[in-house]
Amino acid sequence: MTDTAIIVLDIGKTNVKLALIDAAGTQLAERRRPNTVLRDGPYPHHDTEGIWNWMLETIGEFAATAPVRAIVPVTHGATAALVDHDGLVLPVLDYEFEPPAAQRTEYLAARPAYGTTYSPSLPAGLNLGRQLAWLASAFPADFARTKHILMYPQYWAWRLSGVAAGEVTSLGCHTDLWQPSRQQYSQLVEGSGWTPLMPPLRNAWDPLGPVLPALAERTGLPAGCQVICGIHDSNASLLRHLDATGSHAAPPAILSTGTWVIAALPGGQLDGLKEASDMLANCSALGQPVPCIRFMGGREFGALAGTDAVPCSVADLQQIIDQGTYALPAFAEAGGPFAGRKGSVVGPALPTDAERTALATLYCVLMSDWCLTALGSAGDIVVEGSFTNNPHFAPLLAALRRGQQVTVTDDASGTTSGGWMLAHWGHAPAVHSHAADPIALQGWPQYRERWLTLLP
């Protein structure tokens, strides 16, 4: 047995991960499974029972390896669970489900103004308020049984501890439910009669209590293992950078990459945010509004390169630039600054898998660069998440952001590090990073300029 450890439950839109991390922040073990959306029942919904049973089995394996002192849930946003004393009153709706068009028209008339929530109007269920309004309208009897509306991290914390809590990072994630500048619920919550369903607000790092005795017995967890309140995933990635803005230098931008690529500018101004560009103010774990912009980069990369993308070389990248093949947004339907526009590839065809990967890489770099410019990023840039596994991404970005240092973390999951921090509040794990050397590709800045002129 090693010293005490913690478990981070990391539910992303594509995968679910459990990580066992020791007191020094070193990952001891990791398990993954797909985050499956089920098509049975009244609407597409998350496989919460599948995740739950897999999670308990995996926790049992981890508990046999190290004494676990805490469990921290970290999840994607735009997701909530409606529960009573016994469990879910309705399945957890998948945010990519599109409610009926008539309901959208009705909801748009009721949602708060962008200037109060900094939550842009988004497609499908990406505005959580729209999901809740539709569920209340379509399933009134079930909705009436709801005791708590739980944000997704806090749903898992509740299942583990039995304690219901609310937390600002998920509430402030383009939900229409929260006013980040005033740190209070929006008029939508009060006007819809949901205020009594919102559990007490807690800090993301607060222990809610020990794991339920029956679960401790089933998994082998220590009886005193604490369940931490939990956090929205991109805000978990942001945690270790929150104190980086105390100097007079321009605040660093954080580029959190995965299914979603989210650019965040801690300390940035809100008055430059534009609803039409899917720009928003997330709410940090400390309650601070953080200007953000995002696009579905991982999904779009897969659409261009294929799900089984092969590596590309610098020569492949140069070939795409030389021949003038461009990918123009957007290749995903779930929001982003070019939402509603159908993606296209213009220029000579790409005969090889490596060339398609090269085009996907160039596209994601150009979109990230566009987002950083829209945010007003002028200082350092930190890249973390799954795109750190692409050796060309950060060097290509660095070549476009002259005068700004682009740094790459060695941690492909800032969410896991953020989860560790919540269980060790006041401490940050040792994170190794390196500056990205700009890649020397002939005509790369000119390729960007041409891409900008081709944008729809």
Automatic annotation (TrEMBL):
<dbReference type="InterPro" id="IPR018484">
    <property type="entry name" value="FGGY_N"/>
</dbReference>
<dbReference type="GO" id="GO:0016301">
    <property type="term" value="F:kinase activity"/>
</dbReference>
<dbReference type="GO" id="GO:0005975">
    <property type="term" value="P:carbohydrate metabolic process"/>
</dbReference>
<dbReference type="Pfam" id="PF00370">
    <property type="entry name" value="FGGY_N"/>
</dbReference>
<protein>
    <submittedName>
        <fullName>L-fuculose kinase</fullName>
    </submittedName>
</protein>
<feature type="domain" description="Carbohydrate kinase FGGY C-terminal">
    <location>
        <begin position="250"/>
        <end position="426"/>
    </location>
</feature>
<keyword id="KW-0418">Kinase</keyword>
<dbReference type="Pfam" id="PF21546">
    <property type="entry name" value="FGGY_C_2"/>
</dbReference>
<feature type="domain" description="Carbohydrate kinase FGGY N-terminal">
    <location>
        <begin position="6"/>
        <end position="239"/>
    </location>
</feature>
<dbReference type="InterPro" id="IPR050406">
    <property type="entry name" value="FGGY_Carb_Kinase"/>
</dbReference>
<comment type="similarity">
    <text>Belongs to the FGGY kinase family.</text>
</comment>
<keyword id="KW-0808">Transferase</keyword>
<dbReference type="InterPro" id="IPR043129">
    <property type="entry name" value="ATPase_NBD"/>
</dbReference>
<dbReference type="InterPro" id="IPR049382">
    <property type="entry name" value="FGGY_C_2"/>
</dbReference>
